[in-house]
Amino acid sequence: MKKLHTLGPKKTDSYQAAKFYQQSHIEDSLQIELHTNFEEIYANLANYTDDYFLIPVAFCSRILGNLSFGQLHYRYLKRLKTIDSFIFALNPLICIENSAINTKKAYTHAATADLLKEICPDADEIITCASKYEAYQRYKVDGQFVLTNENNILELSKKEVIHARLPVEIIWCVYQIV
Fold this sequence. Notes:
The chain is α/β, with parallel strands linked by helices. Helix content is 24%, strand content 37%. β1, α1 (13-24) and β2 form a beta-alpha-beta unit.
């Protein structure tokens, strides 16, 4: 059975997109393999020959010096063969401020850092995380702002204010690792 490598945990948009792809390609018998970050997948391509790799085209690598999806696509031309793409809606993005904290720290994924700057110009320090799920977990510790997925929020406190709620559709790329 071939594996479909993508970002975890199960709370991520990547996992939801992988489930969608798996269900729409049932004949391929794909097993979803979740990773801590996309860079882990790129670093281990040689170990995943003939497997598949699912990644959103909005990806930006904080670990690899903010390389974009396009830059990574060209860097790994010899290892990745594009076999499919599709549009899949993310869980809506939500930007929250905790008015009880004045750290001016903001958390999000590297791909959405610029959007967070636009929504929350008062954020002095934007800290990028491997996933929007991780960003929300770190925000709960010492953040004043977060841009995350709506499904990560179980309940808002009385001191939290929603600055924006944004529905987002993303193009996803499916590679075969060669």
